[in-house]
Specification:
One of its GO terms (cellular component) is plasma membrane. The protein is mostly helical. The protein has 2 domains: 1-237, no CATH class; 252-456, no CATH class. The chain has helices at residues 16-45, 50-86, 90-126, 130-145, 147-162, 167-189, 199-223, 239-271, 275-291, 293-311, 315-342, 344-351, 356-370, 373-388, 392-417, 423-445, 457-465, 467-472. The chain is globular and about 60 Å long. 52% of the residues are buried.
């Protein structure tokens, strides 16, 4: 397999803070652009009426869970690539990249078949009514057909992140977001020879941009000018390597799925207090989700830097990287929290206007939780460092403890057994964020996770005997 024609600089030297910011910035912008996809779809679908909006909304949890599976395996690909890129084993980097794509696309094909034919059963299980069933099924099935392309681009972004290239995926996201804005009304309402497809048209617009993203991404990988160079023969299955990637990816998939399910259970608690509290929770949690995007960016950047430094057998720099990430994330989210607190009212009114009761309660919710966001930054950075070291199981456990052992029980108790009432839901965010930051910190400071031997064992095997490197060639 050919080496990249342009060798990217390693992230194992130079300013750690600069490297973190250089990586995290485009990742944060990319996440914001993904939010833009949702806003664009909501803008155009909203003009079809309430039934169309509901048909799209009921499909979101299922689609989110499926994407969580793909995101988990993309984490594994990114970590394995970064560790071996740090060791400058470029043949193995290329081999891992190809096998990661084989693994995730195979998974996507299986999920596509099962989800497509199981779509009606899924909607019945959710309890979708007959008034929106047909539209929801049409929308959902088109999205399911796009899983291969969705997963493919997730892996492309992860592989690029592993070698420190985060600008190209950002540029692709910018172009496809603009294209999605143009295709949405074309496919939804029709024009000329293009028939009106309603909500299914919104899904088709999304899938069309995903196809374009993957095609561009594959061209980038095959040209080999951005740190990874693939060849078509490199896609011959290597089951030993895919087993390693699968072992790393499963905990990350469970991690993301547990987080999504935990938020769904919080929605169930909010529902018990009526429509006003449910609407309040929906708006407030959306604002908080936007607020933690910087922490997610720093966490992913931390994973890449830690993995590259461990691959280069530089555990001291990996440890210092984690410290920098924790401090940076805490500081950024402290500033974001202060800004969210000050701008709570206009932020809430951006998502809702005309209901003063919901607006008042949502502003209170946002202000109660805003200054605990910085503690979320600590947990996210520790989890990022653990993933970079290949310890995706520990990162998964932190998420499960935070969502299921802490937040949900605390929210249930405070809202049902104290005078706080529904406000106990808001305070559960504060309790969970602070306690999880402490637990993550204790896990981190007890040490051991950044020892050189915790770096990818595939690299050690390749150094000793060269079999994987031979396969890559």
């Amino acid at each position: 397999m050919p080496a990249p024609t342009t060798l990217r600089p390693s992230l194992t030297q130079g300013s750690i803070l600069k490297a973190l910011l250089t990586l995290a910035g485009p990742i944060v912008l990319g996440n914001l652009l993904q939010t833009g996809y949702q806003l664009v779809d909501a803008f155009w679908v909203g003009r079809l009426g309430a039934d169309a909006v509901a048909a799209v909304a009921v499909s979101f949890p299922v689609n989110f869970l499926l994407i969580a599976l793909g995101s988990g395996f993309s984490v594994a690909g990114s970590v394995l690539v970064a560790q071996n890129f740090g060791a400058r084993n470029l043949a193995l980097v290329n081999h891992i990249a190809a096998q990661s794509l084989v693994l995730i696309l195979s998974l996507a094909l299986l999920l596509t078949v099962g989800a497509y034919f199981g779509s009606p059963a899924i909607l019945h299980l959710i309890g979708v009514g007959p008034d929106i069933f047909a539209e929801a099924n049409a929308f959902q099935r088109v999205l399911f057909l796009g899983l291969v392309f969705n997963f493919g681009f997730l892996m492309f972004q992860a592989l690029m992140r592993g070698v420190g290239e985060v600008r190209i995926p950002l540029y692709i996201n910018i172009v496809t977001l603009g294209l999605n804005f143009l295709l949405d009304p074309l496919f939804i309402y029709g024009w000329g020879p293009v028939p009106a497809m309603g909500v299914a048209g919104a899904a088709l617009a999304t899938v069309s941009t995903q196809i374009l993203s993957v095609l561009v991404g594959m061209v980038v990988l095959l040209r080999g000018k951005s740190g990874i160079a693939l060849s078509f023969r490199g896609f011959r299955p290597d089951f030993a390597l895919m087993k390693r990637a699968f072992t790393l990816g499963v905990p990350s998939s469970i991690d993301l799925s547990a987080r999504a399910l935990g938020m769904s259970m919080m929605t169930v608690l909010a529902t018990g207090f009526g429509t006003t509290v449910l609407a309040t929770y929906g708006i407030g949690s959306r604002i908080l989700a936007l607020g933690i995007i910087p922490a997610l960016g720093v966490s992913l950047a931390c994973s890449t830097l830690v993995a590259q430094n461990l691959g280069a057998r530089n555990p001291d720099r990996a440890l210092r990287t984690a410290y920098y990430a924790i401090g940076l994330s805490f500081t950024l989210l402290l500033v974001v929290g202060a800004a969210v607190y000050a701008a709570a009212d206009p932020l809430v009114r951006f998502f809702l206007s005309g209901d003063e009761a919901v607006t008042r309660d949502a502003v209170e919710f946002v202000r109660i939780t805003s200054f605990s966001l910085c503690f979320t930054g600590v947990q996210q950075s520790v989890s990022g460092a653990l993933r970079g070291a290949g310890n995706t199981l520990a990162a998964m456990l932190l998420t499960i403890i935070g969502a299921w052992v802490l937040q949900f029980p605390v929210a249930w108790y405070l809202s049902s057994h104290t005078s706080l009432g529904f406000r106990g839901l808001w305070w559960s965010f504060v309790v969970a964020n602070v306690v999880m930051a402490i637990l993550a910190g204790l896990w981190f400071w007890r040490g051991g996770w950044h020892r050189p031997e915790l770096a990818d064992p595939l690299q050690s095997e390749a150094d000793a005997t060269g079999p994987l490197a031979d396969k890559a060639g």
